[in-house]
Design brief:
8-stranded antiparallel β-sheet; 962 residues; mainly beta; globular
């Protein structure tokens, strides 16, 4: 490792003394998402700017396992491992940086991690863990050089070229077969202790480096990473906004006992509820004997003619198996109903799961008679369960399967049973393009790296947007959560390994149900240790979040130790109910009709016919845009550190700009509303002057706002507050040309309203000004004027939709006659929020999530004179919370949806004018049209963060937007 990169605006390279820095025996540069000689398990990696070239960004679920590494730290001369670390979060869990452990196999050597307390800590195994920690916590988003040095007597922790301390070795460290891992631990298939952060330039030396050599490996790196949104940790949280609906829905549920078994044939298992072609309902299940697996097990069926209120007696389905061999067990795994035909997939085995085969049989009379058994396709006729089918939007049938490469030796288990454990599960889908006549197999997904892993890897699939197929998988003893795999091409290809979710599961079948769009229902046991309770969860964003969480059955009829198992059913045609059956503690089959939530109204902003929203690297840069600097960030000259919220207005041939300015920190009492003016179209700007600094009230501060040029007057409406962003309100001013000063008109809007967009004239003669409310959940809001009286406004708060998370609802509007579209900033996600009004802003639909990615920053939108709608912000498919590039999304003339995204400018902009930095935040845009150009003002943090911004301007010819 001879060279490292330090970035201060631009990248500068510092050479390291090659006499003091020896060549490593192994090096991992992390230049790609899958490092050479390694495999990424459990999650995913992505490239990001590194200390040298690219680094590997880990998502908090992944681990990097080094191939052929079990003995690389076992040399007689000790070892040294060094790696650059950029953590994104401290706590609450342990985050492993590098390790050589497999705890479940009693293979413990060493590990260096960010511990639960946020400190960097080295763990060394000496019959118990011995540790040494750095007192100073690493800084999220910044680079740190971490080292572990073992000389056979002491194992030392190094940080940024300095020795922190060491663990004396009273006995040699164990030499195990555990692999070296980065970013987590592969604990014999359980992926955990994961790092949320980036790694770069790791190296291993087959000896203990000297203090001089360790110091030579470190050079300060000033470049930082903008911290991405953290993947969910811990269990998914419900949205409190659903609590009232959940209470109502619980009162509408209906339950019926279908079967209550008695010894010696009390077993009820694998309940499956379907609606038949003739309109009756059928439930099939595994029964026979008191438990399973047993040779007595077989398939049973019952029917309801009154939508689940009453049920016929259970009857066995023989399928010609039991009549030939009474000791052959049968297990139903799926009942597919399609185009008048029922197809049942059923397994046979010897009562222990040896000699296990999977079959299918058909019924053309609603499950009254059955065809001869046919083997499942290909290898899936052996050691396979085929699970709940789906039909994709393009008409293909997908059948998820769980297949096992072998069964282990038969052994005794509880209740005098014998069991042949299914071993090394593989998951995937069968696909048919011809209605089920022929099938192809896709996927060979693993949930464990252990070839001897045994567990019931029951899976379920659902179709999401853009052709994605999501699969959840049961994962016994792998962390108490469901696992997840996704196909991005309609089920044709799948990853090698599934990854952990944060959805708790005790090792039990869970089922998915599409509700339209990306809304999906999940029936499962949300408990990592026990199959109770049984719950209904609903996601409205393709399994990312689960705001609706409702317990349907708190506990078994047999008490808290009883188990609630294997829910399976169907959604009513109107999507108002989920009808399913489950077994209560393996002896009672229960039918439930559960009320479903109605998905929030969807508002689509992107035209799917235009293809996907482009990624950052795919966005075309606008031609012929001109750039200007309104106000440089120069605290050494003027004393002002904070600047934000540029507003623009053309008035009487001059262009005015305003912004909030503060010599201290944001939203404190030293904040001022300030302004500047240009007489040459924005090429040069006057010195900055103060509009209002809250003079006369020691608790008042004035900040950024909006302009309106109306007849002879230039109006300013500025956000203001008392103390530290308390009692937020809007104050009005008019410009006095004679004195070159602003005349205050006092408070015009209260209730926490902060204006974000220039007022827009409505067809009823009123003006509509978009903004948001500070406090009360920070919703989007608008103010409506009393005609042309701009000192009298009515505040209208836009309701927050059910299931919408935390907001910081800075908003903008697009006006189309009496119809208004409000687009608002989210807080929880990099996604645009939206609401509609049909009465000129008087009333609004609830704010909902849209299909348009947008960074968590103030947007600016409107309608150009060309008839095109526009939205200025950062709108790219992979932008996340990054505030670059600055983009403009456009519609076709007269159309409502955006179809094209241009980059106004990227973060790095060496040609200038304006600041250029790889992590420059380009935010809080404000746009106005004037004489064939669109003028866009924006903040530029120049990589500094903390809204220590300069104010800049882009001038875009309208002809370049057509």
């Amino acid at each position: 490792m001879n060279r490292f990169v330090s970035l201060v605006g631009l990248i500068a390279v510092f050479a390291v003394n090659t006499d003091a820095a020896p060549e490593p025996d192994r090096r991992w540069s992390f230049e790609t998402a899958t490092p050479e000689g390694c495999r990424v398990l459990g999650g995913s990696g992505a490239s990001a700017a590194g200390v040298e070239g690219e680094s590997l960004r880990l998502d908090g679920r992944a681990v990097v396992e080094v191939g052929d590494s079990s003995g690389i730290t076992h040399g007689e001369s000790g070892f040294t491992l060094s790696v650059w670390l950029n953590p994104y979060a401290l706590g609450p869990d342990q985050q492993m940086i590098a390790a050589k452990n497999r705890y479940s196999l009693n293979e413990r050597e060493w590990g260096v991690m960010i511990d639960k307390d946020g400190k960097l800590r080295l763990y060394v195994w000496q019959g118990q863990w011995k540790t040494v920690a750095a007192e100073a916590k690493p800084k999220p988003g910044s680079w740190h050089h971490v080292g572990v040095v073992s000389d056979g007597r002491t194992v030392s922790l190094w940080l940024n070229g300095e020795r922190i301390g060491g663990v004396p070795l009273k006995k040699p460290m164990p030499k195990t077969k555990a692999p070296v891992t980065f970013g987590g631990v592969n604990d014999n298939g359980r992926i955990w202790q994961n790092l949320f952060g980036a790694l770069d330039e790791a190296a291993l030396y087959s000896r203990a480096l000297s203090a001089l050599e360790m110091a030579a490996l470190y050079r300060p790196v000033e470049a930082t990473h903008e911290i991405p949104e953290r993947p969910a940790t811990g269990e998914p949280k419900p949205a409190p906004t659903w609590s009232n609906a959940i209470a109502r829905h619980a009162k509408e549920d209906q339950t019926t006992i279908v079967f209550d078994g008695k010894t010696p044939d009390k077993l009820a298992c694998d309940t499956t509820l379907r609606v038949m072609p003739d309109g009756s309902w059928v439930m099939i299940m595994l029964g026979g004997g008191d438990t399973e697996p047993l040779p007595q097990n077989r398939v049973f069926i019952t029917r309801s003619l009154d939508f689940g209120k009453t049920w016929s007696a259970m009857e066995p389905i023989d399928l010609g198996v039991k009549s030939k061999d009474a000791n052959a067990a049968l297990v139903p795994s799926e009942l597919m109903v399609r185009q008048g035909r029922c197809t049942m997939f059923v397994a046979t085995h010897d009562g222990t799961f040896a000699n296990w085969r999977e079959w299918m049989t058909h019924s053309d009379d609603s499950c009254r008679t059955w065809s001869a058994l046919e083997p499942a396709p290909g290898r899936l006729r052996e050691r396979t369960f085929i699970r709940n089918h789906i039909v994709t939007k393009d008409g293909r049938i997908l059948l998820p399967f769980q297949h096992y490469l072998r069964v282990a030796e038969t052994r005794k288990i509880s209740k005098s049973r014998l069991f042949s454990p299914p071993t090394n599960p593989r998951n995937g889908v069968l696909m048919s393009n011809d209605g089920g006549r022929t099938w192809t197999e896709h996927g060979d997904i693993r949930i464990s790296t252990d070839d001897n892993y045994s567990g019931w890897a029951e899976n379920n699939v659902v179709e999401l947007g853009n052709g994605r197929i999501a699969m959840i998988i049961r994962a016994d003893r792998l962390g108490g959560v469901l696992y997840y795999a996704e196909s991005k091409d309609g089920g044709r290809t799948w990853p090698e390994f599934a990854r952990k979710t944060n959805i708790p599961n005790p090792g039990s079948k869970a089922t998915l149900y599409p509700l339209g769009g990306d809304a999906v229902a999940l029936l499962h046991n949300p408990n990592p240790r026990h199959r109770s309770p049984l719950a209904l969860w609903v996601s409205f964003d393709g399994l990312k979040t689960w705001p609706y969480q409702r317990v349907l059955v708190p506990e078994s009829v047999d008490g808290p130790k009883g188990r609630l198992n294997y829910p399976d059913g169907f959604v009513s045609p109107d999507k108002s109910r989920l009808h399913f059956a489950f077994d209560d503690n393996r002896h009672r089959a229960v039918h439930v009709s559960a009320k479903l939530p109605r998905a929030p109204e969807s508002i689509d902003l992107w035209d799917d016919q235009a293809g996907a929203v482009p990624k950052r690297a795919e966005v075309e840069v606008l031609e012929d845009a001109e750039f200007r600097v309104i106000k440089k960030w120069e605290p050494k000259v003027d004393g002002f550190h904070w600047l934000h919220g540029v507003a623009l207005a053309w008035h009487k041939g001059r262009i005015f700009a305003s912004f909030g300015h503060n010599v201290g920190k944001e939203n404190t009492l030293t904040e001022e509303g300030r302004w500047s003016v240009s007489d040459d179209g924005g090429a040069t700007w006057s010195s900055v002057r103060t509009m209002d600094a809250g003079t006369g009230d020691p608790s008042l501060a004035v900040s950024h706002g909006v302009f309106l040029s109306r007849r002879e007057n230039l109006w300013a409406f500025m956000g203001a507050f008392h103390d530290t962003r308390k009692r937020v309100h809007t104050r009005a001013y008019t410009f006095d040309e004679a004195t070159n000063e602003w005349r205050p008109h006092g408070v015009v809007i209260e209730g926490g309203f902060w204006p974000m967009q220039q007022p827009v004239k409505m067809v009823d003669g009123n003006w509509l000004m978009a903004g948001f409310i500070v406090g009360q959940g920070n919703p989007a809001a608008v103010a409506v004027s009393k005609g042309d009286d701009l000192l009298k406004w009515e505040l209208v708060v836009i309701p927050k939709g059910t299931g919408v998370g935390g907001m910081w609802g800075e908003s903008t509007v697009i006006v189309d006659g009496p119809r208004v579209l409000n687009i608002a900033r989210y807080g929880d996600k990099a996604l645009a929020l939206a609401s509609r009004s049909a009465d000129q802003g008087r009333t609004w639909t609830p704010t909902v999530e849209t299909d348009l990615p947008m960074t968590t920053s103030k947007p600016a939108a409107g309608v150009l004179s060309t008839g095109q709608r526009y939205l200025v912000c950062t709108t790219t498919a992979d932008g996340g919370n990054r505030r670059f590039p600055l983009t403009i999304a456009l519609s076709r003339p007269g159309q409502a949806k955006f179809f094209k995204v241009y980059a106004i400018r990227h973060a790095e902009f060496p040609e200038g004018p304006g600041e250029s930095h790889s992590r420059a935040a380009l935010s809080y845009p404000y746009a106005i049209e004037h004489e064939g150009n669109l003028y866009v003002g924006y903040s530029n943090a120049g990589g500094r963060g903390g809204n220590q911004n300069s104010a800049e301007l882009a001038v875009i010819p309208l002809e370049k937007l057509q």
